[in-house]
Structures are given as C-alpha cells and as structure tokens.
Amino acid sequence: MGDLLIQNARLIDGVSDEPRDGMNILVRDGKFETISSEPIDVSEGTDRLDLAGKTLIPGLFDSHAHLAWDALQDIQLQSQNDSTALAAMKCTLNMRRYLETGVTTIRDLGVHWLGVESRNAAVAGTVPGPRILASGPPITTTGGHCWWCGVEADGPDGVRQMVRDLAKGGVDLIKVIATQASLGSFLFPGSASTPNPSFTDAELKALVDESHNLGRKVTAHATTPEGARQVVEAGIDSIEHGTDFTDETIELMLEKGTFVIPTFSASWMQAHHGHEIGIPPAEIERRKKMIADPDRARGVARAAAAGVNMAVGTDQGSPCTPPAALINEMALHMEYGVVDDPMQVIKNATASAAKLCGIDSFVGSVQPGLVADFVVVAKDPLEDLRNLYAPAMVYKEGQMVARDGALLPENPLFFA
Ligand SMILES: [Zn+2]
After folding, report:
1. What's the gap in Å between 100 CA and the centre of ligand 1?
2. Helix (H) or strand (E) holding 352
C-alpha cells in the first residue's frame, strides 16, 4: 500500500476541543504517520487527496449494534425463526451499510453467535465490514429478557461457567442482561417489564470477576435505577440504554470510570417510521409520548453533566433502526440535552468509544501512530451533526471503502 498525502483538511481529531483548518496528514502503512499545519515533504509519485472545504473526522463507532436483525421485523421472532444462513445475510448487509455510514468500528451485542462470525468474516476479508467487537450471545437469567437470542445462566457458579464458555468461543466482551425490557416486545405489550434486577448481587459479582479474570470487559443492559446501582457496584464497565441514575450511582460511576451508552434511536425511529413496517398504532402512540417527554434523558444528562464517560449506540437492528440511525442518534444526544456541544458528541462517537472498547491507543482518533480510519464530509458537522449523513469518503486502515454513501466495488483479487 502506497503513502497517501491528505492536504488542506479541516481536521476534527476526536480528542481536541476545536477543529483545525488547513491540516496536512500523511498516511503510511494504514496509519496516520504525520499530522501538520506545515507542508509535508513526500516523494513525487505519492497519492494526494486535496480536502479544501471539507472536514475530516475519525471513523465513527456504533457502540450498540445487533448485526443479525434487519430493522424490519420483531426481534424475538427473527432470533427464534431465522436460519443461520438468513441471519448471516442480514449481517452482511448491515456490515456494508455501516461502512457506507462512516462507521468503521462497532460493538455487536449479540444475536446468538452471529456477531462473532461476522467479525471473523470481516477479518478474513470474506465480506467487507467494520471492525467488530462481539459479545456473542448475551447472558440472561432463565427466562430473562433476551433469552431467545442469548444464553441462560443462574447462580454464581452457573454464570462463571457461562463466561468461561463464551470466552472459549472467542467473544471480545461479555454482555449481561441485568434488567428486563423497558417496553417489552411490540407484539406482546407489557411483556417482561419489571424494575427489579434480574440477577442476584452474588451472581453479578461472579460474572464480573470471571470476565475480568479472562480479560473481557462487561457491559450490562440496565434500564432501571436499581438495576444500574447493582451493576455499577458489581464493577461492570458500561451500561447500555441508561436510566434515571441516583446521585449515589453517578458518584460510583465517576469513581470507577463506568461508561454509559444511551440508546435513543429505536423508540424515536419507531415513533416516526413505525407505521411503515406495521407497528400497531397504539404502540406508535406509546413511543410518541415517550420521545416527547422532556424528562426522557434526565438521568443520562445528569450523569453526563457530572462527567460520566459517554459513548454513542443505536441498538441497531431493532425495528426501524438501521446502521445509518447512528447519525440521528448523535443528533438526539444534543436534542435530549445529554451534551450541548456537537464536538463532544463526535468525541463520544469516536475516541471515547475507543476507550470504552479498550482500543484507544490503537484506533479512534486522528493522531500519529494510530490506525487511519477516517471519514470525509462535505458540510460542517459542527453546524449540524446530520451533515454526517452519506459521507463523501470513508477510509478504513488507510484504504477508501466507500464514496458518496456507497460501498466501493472491491478489487477482483485474482484477475487484476
Ligand atoms: Zn440492544
């Protein structure tokens, strides 16, 4: 792979508070080599990319994805009825759409083992896709939320055994379902909804202990204040969805460096588009009320204001929530008052998310020595985060993978 000299870019690097204009960046061997406001000397034949008038940001992260769901059908029915072949096709399409959205890394939080297989297929070059950190099937209590796409385990010994089984199967992290669904299934309103934690304290402590022993981070689906308190006390690394955190829980999250990944997209998208996929009108009304509630994100906003680490996740695959919902999710972080600065949202969807994954020294920001995942946009994302839709160019590991919101044709390896 030859060098690439990027010139005249407006640079948002994922860690600085301000953009920098007129920046030159040398990409070598798939990494950012030099970043300078001064001209960079390169040899005659070096590829050049003039980005005058355009903005370069790090490749985006969707920190909460389910590649095997299609955003159209009920997630429980898909999980139970899809053959592995059909589920794999859905993964392949979603992986492509992530790249087209400018998302170069995702955390797949499980539909059976499909995320792990997708990761392996992307790494092997079988299909194009983002970098995937996969939890494999989420761990839930017997009959607990998501039992139909996860694995059931009970008792401290049972969950410890399950963590070992998942690690043996090659998962990158552990996902635990610590509370029930907040809405239940839209086909079965009122299903599986209770504010109580699902696991005992002893079970969760064993789960976290074993995961960390095996070098895996743990993320918890926790949607109630009591559930959040329990998982933070047990030492989990991040909370999915979020809730109305108590002051004590926020204090503890700050102390332990816990991340929160709010997911506003699914209910927002369903309220706006649910009629297009046949969600019953009463369910759409329920979501409309939910997204109009000014206090909807109160707990998450209080946590963010206190300095709790945030990342951005869509719950992709849920009805009406395709990969491109990430851009809307970023805008919703502003609209719900989680942050008041678009630059902070970009940081939370890049460098902060990389830290959540434990890979920030390798990828997630535009700094010398880091992997050259980046996105070029024609309009200023700081003016409107929705300017990130259909990016002009997407690069993964220094190679262009998408242009004008469409995947590039791949090189025919054996007939060039
Ligand atoms: Zn989810």
Report:
1. 21
2. helix 351-357
List, as ranges, residues with CB under 5 A of the ion ligand 1: 315
96 CA to middle of ligand 1, Å? 19
Q: Measured between alpha carbons, how far is 131 from 161 in angstroms, rounded to an integer?
A: 28
CA dist 414 and 261 (Å) reads 43
Compute, in angstroms, the gap from residue 51 CA to the centroid of ligand 1.
37
- The size of the chain, in residues, is 416
Q: What is the DSSP letter of 39?
A: -
* Cα of 146 from ligand 1 centre, angstroms: 9
Please give the CATH number for the structural domain made up of 60-357: 3.20.20.140
Residues facing residue 132 across a β-bridge: 106
Alpha-carbon distances of 74 from 139, 178, 311, 368, rounded to whole Å: 20, 21, 26, 44
Superfamily of the domain at 4-58+364-407: Urease, subunit C, domain 1 (2.30.40.10)
Instruction: Look at residue 5 and give its three-state secondary structure.
Output: strand
Other C-beta atoms closer than 10 Å to the C-beta of 373 total 31
How does pLDDT run across 305-322, given as a tens digit for each residue?
A: 999 999 999 999 999 999
Alpha carbon of 65 to ligand 1 centroid (Å): 6
Tell me what pLDDT residue 408 has: 93
Cα(388) to ligand 1 centroid in Å equals 23
Specify the DSSP class assigned to residue 51: -
3 state DSSP class of 166: helix
Taking the centre of ligand 1 as the mean of its atom positions, its distance from the CA of residue 210, in whole angstroms, is 23
- The domain ranges of the chain are 4-58+364-407, 60-357
Task: Report how far ligand 1's centroid is from the alpha carbon of 147 (Å).
Answer: 13
The string of pLDDT tens digits covering residues 159-192 is 999 999 999 999 999 999 999 865 555 445 445 5
CA of 246 to the centre of ligand 1 (A): 23
Instruction: Please give the distance, rounded to the nearest whole angstrom, from the Cα atom of residue 111 to the centre of ligand 1.
Output: 9
Percent residues over pLDDT 70 in the chain: 95
- Pair of tokens at residue 60: 């985006």
Measured between alpha carbons, how far is 27 from 42 in angstroms, rounded to an integer?
Answer: 11
Our CA dihedral for 378, 379, 384, 389, rounded to 10 degrees, sits at -30
